[in-house]
Amino acid sequence: MLEELLSQLKAITEDALSALAAAKTDADVEAVKNRTLGRNGAVTALSPMMGKLPNESKRDAGKAFNETKTAIQEALNAARERLEDATSDANA
Fold first, then answer.
1. Is residue 34 very low, low, confident or very high in pLDDT (cuts 50, 70, 90)?
2. pTM for this predicted structure
3. Residues in contact with 69: Cβ distance below 8 Å, sequence separation at least 6, in sequence order
4. N or C: where does the chain have the smaller number of CB atoms within 10 Å of the terminal CB?
């Protein structure tokens, strides 16, 4: 069960990073955020699996959740910055 959870988190991260790299507008970035980290996002939807894991696996799962959230959040910030720079360059 832990392996399945880790695999799903990895897939979510890869999908989010590629979508953010291709994002052309702030709306694209927000859509990725909502789809992954939002209230009904993919990462949030996996959270209940934590309760079903054996205690010895919860630490690894928690670490994976945190790493996933951090990676996506950093990519969101980078995408926003990239779009902001592109906008300011276009207006300059």
1. very high
2. 0.90
3. 37, 43
4. C
Please, are residues 61 and 5 in contact by the beta-carbon 8 Å criterion?
A: yes
Contact between 10 and 72 (Cβ < 8 Å): no
Angstrom distance (rounded) from CA 86 to CA 60? 39
If pLDDT is split at 50, 70 and 90, which confidence band does 72 have?
Answer: very high
